[in-house]
Write a structure and sequence with these properties.
The chain has 64 residues and is an alpha+beta fold. The chain is built from four helices and two strands; from the N terminus they run αααββα. It has one domain: Arc Repressor Mutant, subunit A (Orthogonal Bundle). The longest helix has 13 residues.
Length: 64
C-alpha cells in the first residue's frame, strides 16, 4: 500500500490531496492518512498545507 501511495504522489508534481487519492485509489481516507503520515515521517513525501508532493530522489538519497 505504501508503494502504491508513494508512486501515485510521485506522479502528481503539483501535489495531491487525500480526498483526491481517496477517489483515484479507492481507499478509505483513514487508511490513506495513516500511510501518508508514515511516508511523511520517513521523508519520502512532502506536505505543504493540505497537499502531498513528491520528494526529489537526490534529497532522499542524501538522508540515507
Amino acid at each position: 500500500m505504501e508503494e502504491l501511495v508513494k508512486d501515485f504522489i510521485n506522479q502528481q508534481p503539483n501535489g495531491v490531496r487525500i480526498s483526491e487519492m481517496e477517489i483515484c485509489l479507492k481507499q478509505s481516507r483513514l487508511r490513506l492518512g495513516y500511510v501518508t503520515r508514515k511516508l511523511l515521517n520517513e521523508g519520502k513525501v512532502l506536505k505543504i498545507e493540505n497537499k502531498y508532493f513528491p520528494v526529489e530522489e537526490s534529497k532522499t538519497e542524501q538522508t540515507k
